[in-house]
């Protein structure tokens, strides 16, 4: 970690305790000692959660067969984490968090627009993980015959929120150690879960699931990309900023992809087999994914399963809240990094309280939230990856903090590209729960003019196979990438010639 020698004994005590005091500033060269293989641990630990098995059920809900779902899982998850790896290359080139490095294509001030989207989606993800951990605790307690009411949920939520905030406040170095331990614990628990439930697999029932349409396959592919790699892509460089400057970009992509994709691919493939064999599990998975998966376990394994599952969810939330704190600082909030993580922890706790104790369901609003913010994040990712591809030199680190530097205050063409790609994208995605989340039914406005689908205002439903393909995410990414690659080439060359 980078700590300025200001003579403060309090700051030195914090440093000795292992707490990272570095915020959005550039990491000193002496502190950049991480190896590419170190990237495996945080990404694997954050994605080895048994929750991944639930996505097997979600894929089959899309109306596709087991082999189509399996193909979508392998390709979609892998491609999405390759994209994360490409963003992570920027971390070793600039030694700064993702949203600071994003100032290069958008400008030092202009970056605040995608920064706001990034902060909101990070807050949403970490809150979602905390909610699932709380609900899973209550369900497992019920299966054990213990109390599973309000008191249990309050205690579970308090402990879970405390773990998430404490780890994220501690920072990078402690998180890396924490994640390496969790990798072994949650990985072992997942293997035991699969071994104990393997007898639930019914090959005949699985193969009897009919094939779905091409549109359904595309929709499932987009869902997988958005839920896995694209859900992390806006923070991908936060973990590579401690890499040595001379580290191979290819090795960063490799370890990032391997760590992120390995566990989800295995888990989703098993989830497809389990959900295809046991359709009765699917309704429960919709509202309490991990708790429902626990109902088919023998009683003796419920407590180890609960501990491993909750810690895996906490692991993912820790990555999210750590990075959302950095994003908050990048927006101009003048507080220390640990304080920023604490602020986000308070928001996480309030969101968890609302969903667990007030809202009737969280799947519908969360899925709607995911696809809505997935569009501008996909557009941003396309712009950022194209910008990284265009650059041949490391970032001018000082200019990332200077509106008068080579990256400028606002790059209006990049802002226009982000807005334009998002407008197109929102017009080609739909709210999958139009009756439950009516406030989001404004999406899909390009589908009818393009004769891709039809909106029935009376029944509040979309009619047409392309409606749920969510083409908007792919188009937003493609527009951001292609326009930047063509239109920003000259700007990047001028910057690097200075």
General description of the model:
By secondary structure, the protein is mostly helical. Helices cover 66% and strands 1% of the residues. It is built from 21 helices and two strands. The protein has helices at 9-16, 40-47, 51-61, 66-94, 98-101, 103-106, 112-143, 150-170, 172-197, 203-207, 214-227, 229-232, 249-277, 282-287, 289-294, 302-330, 337-357, 363-390, 412-427, 471-487, 489-497; strands spanning 454-456, 461-463. Strands 1-2 form a two-stranded antiparallel ribbon. α2 runs parallel beside α13 and α7 packs antiparallel against α16. The longest helix is centred in the first third of the chain and has 32 residues, at 112-143. It is globular and about 65 Å long. It comes from Aeromicrobium duanguangcaii. It is a multi-pass membrane protein. The chain crosses the membrane at residues 40-61, 67-90, 116-142, 154-174, 181-198, 218-240, 252-273, 301-329, 341-363, 369-390, 410-433, 463-487. Pfam families: Transp_cyt_pur. Keywords: Membrane, Transmembrane, Transmembrane helix, Transport.
In short:
The chain has helices at 9-16, 40-47, 51-61, 66-94, 98-101, 103-106, 112-143, 150-170, 172-197, 203-207, 214-227, 229-232, 249-277, 282-287, 289-294, 302-330, 337-357, 363-390, 412-427, 471-487, 489-497, and strands spanning 454-456, 461-463. By secondary structure, it is an all-alpha fold. Strands 1-2 form a two-stranded antiparallel ribbon.
